[in-house]
Design goal:
363 residues; alpha/beta; D-Maltodextrin-Binding Protein, domain 2; 2 domains; five-stranded mixed beta sheet; 16 helices; 12 strands; 48% helix; globular; disordered N terminus
Amino acid sequence: MKNEKAICSPLAANESNYSKVPEYAQSKRLTIARTVLLLIAVIAFTSEAGCSRKEEPKRSEKITIAVTPWPASTPIFIARENGYFREEGLDAEFQSHESGHLGLASALSGEADLAEAADTPIARAAVNAKPLAVIATIAEIDRLILIIARRDRGIEAPRDLKGKRIGLTSGTGAEYFLHTYLAALYINPRDIRMITYAPDRIVDALLKGKVDAVCTWSPYTARLRDRLGARALVLSDPGIYRGTWNVVSTQDYVKKKPECVARFLRALLKANRFIEKHPDETQAISAKYIGMESHLYAKEWKNYRFALMLDQTLILNLEDQARWMIKREAGSARKMPNFLDYIYIDGLKSVQPAAVTIPGKQE
């Protein structure tokens, strides 16, 4: 018993302390529970805030695009028709121009934010030291320019162009192509008569016989082939000139609005995916914006390759045309521009880095 008491006595001595154990444990459990609840609340709030940020629409930015109604502009037509600009937070307004050189002039004057242009107007603007910035090539065209000649005017072969009247729009790729095409045939430009027309006057000029042939692009070429039928002789040489269709802006705009440029390019990437998957629907949408039935330019559709890029081919093409322009101006003090200074790569690199393949612009 003494031993038993001795054994039990320590427990008895600490009985008052043990009687407090349940209260302590309860307090500890309460503290843990409160901490867990607080953590759950914080996580829930953070998740909710994160979700709300993801779902929050992008702030809408208004952007004016100078657009030319022809097949090479298809990615921009699709981006608008399918709401891709809107998805990227852009309120896109179209400004229609009959040719790229007019659209480029609109952008350079500040009337448009972005414009489409072929390489010839871009080269001329750079030769004249205009502050333009090439954002991306959106299409390559194997037979961008065609010569449509009238057989009933004695033109049955390319050599028959000598001594004829040829209509074209000055300041465009048609002018450069005709120069190159005649040189390949060893025809002196002085041996033909070039007559300048606005793009929308080209079709009428040939149909009414004011000229014997015209040098122009789609949709005018498609309309002439349709109207003239067997009387039309189509001349071209894809090996002489492969054209590009590009999006341009001013250097000031791309510096001030880089996010708008990136949004615009992301919308075009979506458009290109649609073009690849839905060719028939694409042509129908394009025809609506061009204002003619798609079957009229179905023969030429295969010549267009839609892709966002900035590559060395563009630089070489611009340099060739700049040399031609400077050489034409006898006694001109103008120098060959460094076209790398006119290429803006940050926008395309931010959305599709692999599409930028210009040496010297890989920083």
